[in-house]
């Protein structure tokens, strides 16, 4: 098991956003978190990446308890997040943005190899290598954010709403790339509003409602679950 959350609770001041979440991600999997707005999906990601401290419960990653570990040290251990809302550096070029993703690493030949890998996954980024990040289209910025997260060569890639704001054709494309990244050996934990795509691509998924996990199963099981269909897939 690569990642395990046990009974994790998290609060923003007095607002409790997670009420005892338990979930696991095995090495090699794509696991999706789905749920309505405000269900706690992004908060769960923040707990894993260390951007918010947990109130109780524990998080272990790659055999180590990381519950209280600083976020930057988690990146070094192999957890990398591509945040919701992209969060790229607008004044830096595409290439510089990607280089920033490798800031914890020192091995230049390895970094160059990973740059080539990212350019292979996203040819658009290669074409626009020198363009400043802020002038890229929404979809391109999304790709840049995913590419940057890959530059730390993570064992676990956390993707928060990778399809947000993308045109339908680009949504297909970004999910194809996520599957490819996974097939190249990176484990993926994914938050998505687009439950249809997420469930059809994920090995397993969890359904969150108001800070609690209410259902889990394989992507295919949940895709055919009547309650999930009704609530999240827009078909009865
Ligand atoms: P969405 O899909 O809308 O982003 P989500 O499932 O990712 O939703 P979260 O962003 O994790 O939901 O939010 C869970 C709860 O925590 C919500 O009630 C939200 O209002 C609250 N919350 C999130 N961030 C903060 C914050 N910085 N301060 C206070 N409350 C917050």
How would you sum up this structure, described in words?
With 236 residues, this protein is of the alpha/beta class. The protein has a domain at 1-78 and 156-162 and 188-236: Rossmann fold (3-Layer(aba) Sandwich). The protein is 38% helix and 26% strand. It is built from 10 helices and 10 strands. It has helices spanning 41-49, 71-77, 94-100, 108-121, 123-127, 138-150, 168-183, 195-201, 219-223, 226-232; strands at residues 3-12, 15-25, 30-35, 56-61, 64-65, 79-82, 156-160, 187-191, 204-209, 212-218. The protein has a 6-stranded mixed beta sheet with strand order 6-7-8-3-9-10, sandwiched between helices. Strands 2-1-4-5 form a 4-stranded antiparallel beta sheet, with helices on one face. Strand 1 and strand 2 form a beta hairpin. Helix 3 runs parallel beside helix 6 (138-150). The longest helix has 16 residues, at 168-183. The model has no long low-confidence stretch (mean pLDDT 92). Residues 12, 15, 17, 35, 37-43, 193 line the site of adenosine-5'-triphosphate.
